[in-house]
Amino acid sequence: MTDITFILLGIIGLFLIFLIVKSAIVKSKIKDNFCIICASISLSWIVLLFLYFYGLFDNVLIISLLIGMSITGIYYFIERKIGKRNKFKMFRLPFILTLVIFAYYVLTLENIFKEALIIAGLWLVFIFIYFYNNSKFIKKLLECCKE
Predict the structure, then answer these.
(1) What pLDDT, on the 0 to 100 scale, is given for residue 43?
(2) Full-model pTM
(3) What percent of the chain has pLDDT over 70?
(4) In terms of CB atoms within 10 Å, which end of the chain has fewer, N or C?
(5) From residue 4, how far is each of 51, 56, 123 by CA, in Å?
(6) Does one domain contain both 90 and 134?
(7) pLDDT band for position 82 (50/70/90)?
(8) Environment class of 67 (CB within 10 Å of its CB; exposed 0-12, middle 13-18, buried 19+)
């Protein structure tokens, strides 16, 4: 069997374990916000990342794909939490690029100082626009990803 077969079976196994655990938890805020798919995917890439850094696993592509899935999940989770506060949605680009650069660093452990400066600059520009209250520009930012 290939790496991907084992990984898929592992994710399915984790999903079933988390499903059982979640169903056993009494109603709580944690239970309501706990996504078993996200947990299964995240735990999988975390374990694979450790194995990768210890030389026991070499398929960085599948780790990257799984991390990308987690980034998407985090993005949508935060967007759902923001809800009706539309003005905060203008920060979607800097937020998702921050997650991407963090994931890149986690995978490579390279010095990302220049990239971090670019992301920080992007945040500053968006924060300036937010406080400057350029309604026309903010409206265009919000319209970029209409649901």
Answers:
(1) 97
(2) 0.84
(3) 88
(4) C
(5) 15, 15, 37
(6) yes
(7) confident
(8) buried
